[in-house]
Amino acid sequence: MINMNKILLHVEGLAILLLSLYGYFYFGFSWIWFFILLLSPDIFMLGYLINNKVGSMVYNFIHTLSVAILIFLIGIFLSNSIFLAAGLILSSHIGMDRMFGYGLKYPTHFKDTHLNRV
Predict the structure, then answer these.
(1) In a 3-state reduction of DSSP, which class is residue 105?
(2) Would the pTM of this model clear 0.70, i.e. be above it?
(3) Which tens digits make up the pLDDT trace of 68-86?
């Protein structure tokens, strides 16, 4: 049976990724830095070394679009290209994660995500 909600969330992730890539291209930022930093938000998995609750809180904080948008908006208001690029790289990472089915984590287990429970 096809879970249409899950499919829509994956497509939404793809849309976020494509929009973020377009923004990155539009502003003319370095693609070398993009590929170097694309997976850097996953360093926040280190919170799981403490326990699942802390790990999920730290991981989810950085993997939330509102944080990426806030960083991007700071870049807009301050005319700061580092914040602009960082916000776009983070939103690209989040979009890529959602597209591949990696969602926000529940404190029960690392593999227990909001996309798995849809």
Answers:
(1) strand
(2) yes
(3) 999 999 999 999 999 999 9
